[in-house]
């Protein structure tokens, strides 16, 4: 049992899907997994282990933002020997190259977070996806956009205009977790990928309905499971 995850040794599979919302973790377990068992309810951050096409897989809620996500990811890698984590989340589109409900597979993640700045003492580390997961997710989802995203620490940013520079340098979308996830995977020598669906469009102001979010979320989970376990 780790500090924030109430699972015993061996209760978590080597492959973990990581939604921010713990209720999404339950929905994924109920919808996609066979024989799913809840292994943790600590702080309501639900985790489940089951099988998909006969192969073990876990689903763990991470909360929103890099500090919350990093607590769970540190413990999954360090205390449960997890080998692969695929974040499945939502993002805001920053460019009209994306439409609402599109799927974005993050090849790398820029950030305004101090988590990397502190760890790298002022040098700029470039957090990138695991190549095999990225390639297999892209192959499973020809419709998806593959590219850079931005992991912001503030959903309600005091200086949203700063993102313009990022968009001019190819950044497609904004979310709040991928950058620190990629850095932690590198630190532990494990694999990570972030896949997001566009829930809101920062340029056009469009938003998805709850039903639309559920539908596109399901497609993203299929892509994540295929990339992580399909072979
Ligand atoms: N900003 C940050 N994170 C997000 C957004 C957003 O607009 N949409 C979904 N996750």
Structure description:
The protein is an alpha/beta fold and 231 residues long. It has a single domain (15-229), classed as Nucleoside phosphorylase domain (Rossmann fold). Helices cover 34% and strands 28% of the residues. It has seven helices and nine strands; from the N terminus they run E-H-E-E-E-H-E-E-H-H-E-H-E-H-E-H. It has helices at residues 22-32, 66-80, 114-119, 131-140, 163-168, 178-188, 210-229; strands spanning 15-18, 34-40, 47-52, 55-60, 84-93, 103-111, 145-151, 171-175, 191-201. A five-stranded mixed barrel has the order 5-8-7-6-9. Strand 3 (47-52) and strand 4 form a beta hairpin. Helix 2 (66-80) runs parallel beside helix 6 (178-188) and helix 4 crosses helix 7 (210-229). The chain is globular. It starts with 14 loop residues before the first strand and ends with a helix. 48% of the residues are buried. The model has no long low-confidence stretch (mean pLDDT 96). It binds hypoxanthine (HPA).
Indicate the topology.
Layout: E1 15-18, H1 22-32, E2 34-40, E3 47-52, E4 55-60, H2 66-80, E5 84-93, E6 103-111, H3 114-119, H4 131-140, E7 145-151, H5 163-168, E8 171-175, H6 178-188, E9 191-201, H7 210-229
Parallel strand pairs: 1-4, 1-5, 5-9, 6-7, 7-8
Antiparallel strand pairs: 2-3, 3-4, 5-8, 6-9
Helix pairs in contact: 2-6, 4-7
